[in-house]
């Protein structure tokens, strides 16, 4: 009977999708904060020189929006970090008794829910506070820490006593 190993492709697709999503979130938050703080649509072309008086006004607006965007993203990371630390420890240790899927599936579901919430917020122009709630939910589901911990534990299970698919492993 042939066993199919899907851990590596799942982790690869997960990492690729998250690395593609996080820069979009930063850009979206910056654009939304620009619209909220200035009351004007985001300019697509910025034609100003550093010698004119209007450049200092735009420069101060950019600095203020960058500050607000950085604070929002910091709060988002904190909403994700603290539940993720606790739940990843619980999920990975619980997976020792109930199987590795316990540590692999919830983080994938949590990130899928986060991506769906992000798509909904950006499509319907909802409040950015929903992204904080989605970050918290993704953290409760384990996040990448639980996924990597479960993946490493799964690979360690395959390497029974130092012997894996490729023979003896050096110690």
UniProtKB/TrEMBL annotation:
Subcellular location field: Lysosome membrane
Keywords: Glycoprotein, Lysosome, Membrane, Symport, Transmembrane, Transmembrane helix, Transport
Membrane-crossing residue ranges in chain numbering: 6-25, 72-92, 112-132
Main localisation: membrane
Membrane protein topology class: Multi-pass membrane protein
Protein name according to UniProt: Solute carrier family 46 member 3
Organism in which the protein naturally occurs: Salmo salar
Gene for this chain: LOC123725118
């Amino acid at each position: 009977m042939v066993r199919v190993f899907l851990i590596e492709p799942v982790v690869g697709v997960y990492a690729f999708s998250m690395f593609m999503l996080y820069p979009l979130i930063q850009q979206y938050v910056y654009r939304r904060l620009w619209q909220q703080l200035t009351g004007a649509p985001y300019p697509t072309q910025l034609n100003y020189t550093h010698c004119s008086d209007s450049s200092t006004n735009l420069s101060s607006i950019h600095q203020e929006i960058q500050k607000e965007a950085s604070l929002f993203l910091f709060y988002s990371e904190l909403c994700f970090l603290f539940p993720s630390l606790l739940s990843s420890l619980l999920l990975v240790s619980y997976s020792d008794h109930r199987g590795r899927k316990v540590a692999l599936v919830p983080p994938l579901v949590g990130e899928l829910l986060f991506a769906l919430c992000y798509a909904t917020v950006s499509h319907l122009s909802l409040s950015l506070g929903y992204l904080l709630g989605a970050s918290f939910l993704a953290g409760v589901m384990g996040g990448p820490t639980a996924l990597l911990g479960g993946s490493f534990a799964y690979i360690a299970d395959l390497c029974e006593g130092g012997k894996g698919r490729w023979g003896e492993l050096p110690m």
